[in-house]
Write a structure and sequence with these properties.
Blueprint: E1 2-6, H1 10-21, E2 25-29, H2 42-46, H3 60-65, E3 68-71, E4 76-80, E5 85-88, E6 91-94, E7 97-100, E8 105-106, H4 110-114, E9 119-121, H5 125-135, E10 140-144, H6 148-159, E11 163-168, H7 180-192, E12 196-199, E13 203-209, E14 212-217, E15 222-225, E16 227-230, E17 234-235, H8 239-243, E18 252-253, E19 265-267, E20 272-273, H9 282-301, E21 315-318, E22 323-328, E23 336-342, E24 348-354, E25 357-364, H10 370-375
Parallel strand pairs: 1-2, 1-7, 2-3, 7-19, 9-16, 10-11, 10-16, 11-12, 18-20
Antiparallel strand pairs: 4-5, 5-6, 8-17, 13-14, 14-15, 21-22, 22-25, 23-24, 24-25
Helix pairs in contact: 1-9
């Protein structure tokens, strides 16, 4: 059997591995010139802490040894889901099944497109290499977005002696992971490291005059910068799949077996939408890739399908001076945040409860008991603090 996989991130590579290991023939399409790499490490690449070879998922020989036909710089421009035909670089090929694993791309604000050399999204390896080149002469950096990538970039900037401002539209940083208490502690730690943190503000434009950038805020203030990085969200490009007749919304809609709306077509990773849409972790992407591969092969051989579990994956970041960990949801309607450690010096530990059920864990400056609590999400909370 011959299966085409469109997209070579964690989900696509893991799908290719399982098909190859089970004797299937695989063509793995990538629109990038690099070997598939660990996307969360692009911030490290941008700040010169690793090189591109250090963040690859697998070495080149691994694909050759498994006879995985990896096609770099080979974007897919059309698919026919009925005949399982893929068009890339003007060439058509037919497969027995298709797996869609194209992931997501960065949300591009208007000024990114206006000043592409000066305003760069933190997303792909090529972006990171462009950032790395520009940082050599940069004394001041502005980061638009106060999520994990933005804060990681801020930490590395300060370590390198670069002045940095972070602009976050939400009332506090890491709003998808932290409630106000933990986020406030994290903000204090960042400011103590010299980060100019602007929360509750958004960028209206970026202007360039005599080589200097002015980052214009909604309150009329301007931040002078040499370079601007953006990390404000993800978008899924579903155009090719929608044109092919697949059901799409914010992604390609799939069921618990990673099946799309056409028989013999599966989707996994960030492009797959099941019940809700959110940015998947690389762990979930790999699990979905495995599930899509196993179920694609089962469909072709008449075997039983395996449901793919959806679960919460903890988020962690550790730096010499800043550390934070989160699992589950932050406080919100119907939820209570219970703070059991806040020393006022940059350490905070809290849980989020729905009645007596543990729904979230948030820690800054510590990871004491984090793993146990993260593993207990969805269960009755027992206070051991």
């Amino acid at each position: 059997m011959r299966i085409g996989i469109i997209g070579a991130g964690h989900a696509g590579v893991e799908a290719a591995r399982h098909i190859s290991d089970r004797g299937g023939e695989v063509v793995l399409y990538s629109d990038e010139p690099f070997l598939p790499y660990v996307r969360p490490r692009v911030v490290l690449l941008a700040f010169g802490r690793v090189d591109i070879d250090a963040i690859t998922v697998r070495p080149d020989r691994w694909y050759r040894d498994r006879q995985i036909d990896l096609r770099l710089e080979c974007p897919v421009t059309h698919i026919d889901v009925h005949t399982k035909t893929v068009t890339a670089k003007g060439q058509q090929e037919r497969f027995d099944a298709l797996i869609l694993a194209t992931g997501a791309g960065p949300l591009l604000l208007p000024f990114v497109q206006k000043l592409p050399d000066d305003v760069i999204p933190i997303w792909r390896a090529r972006d990171s290499l462009a950032i790395q080149r520009r940082l050599e002469g940069a004394g001041h950096l502005t980061i638009v977005g106060g999520g994990i990538s933005g804060l990681e970039a801020a930490a590395y900037s300060r370590e390198a002696g670069v002045e940095v401002a972070v602009v976050e539209k939400a009332p506090h940083v890491m709003a998808l992971q932290f409630g106000p208490t933990a986020a406030g502690v994290l903000a204090r730690r960042l400011r103590d490291q010299g980060v100019d943190l602007r929360t509750g503000r958004f960028v209206t434009d970026v202007l360039k005059n005599d080589g200097e950038l002015s980052v214009m805020l909604d309150n009329g203030e301007a931040i002078r910068s040499d370079l601007v990085l953006t990390t404000v969200g993800a978008v899924r490009d579903t155009a090719v799949f929608a044109q092919a007749g697949l059901r799409t919304d914010k992604g390609v809609i799939v069921d618990e077996y990673q099946r799309a709306s056409e028989a013999g077509v599966f989707a996994c990773g960030d492009i797959a939408q099941r019940n809700h849409i959110r940015t998947a972790s690389i762990v979930l992407a790999a699990e979905q890739g495995r599930g899509a591969a196993i179920n694609a092969m089962a469909t072709l051989t008449g075997g039983p399908l395996e449901p793919v579990a959806d679960r919460t994956i903890p988020l962690s970041f550790r730096h010499d001076r800043i550390e934070f960990h989160s699992a589950g949801v932050p406080a919100g309607p119907g939820l209570e945040e219970k703070v059991f450690s806040d020393d006022g010096e940059g350490v905070c530990r809290s849980v989020v409860l729905e009645g007596d059920i543990l729904r979230g864990v948030q820690m800054v400056g510590s990871r004491e008991d984090f793993r146990r609590l993260a593993d207990s999400l969805g269960r009755p909370y027992r206070d051991r603090s």
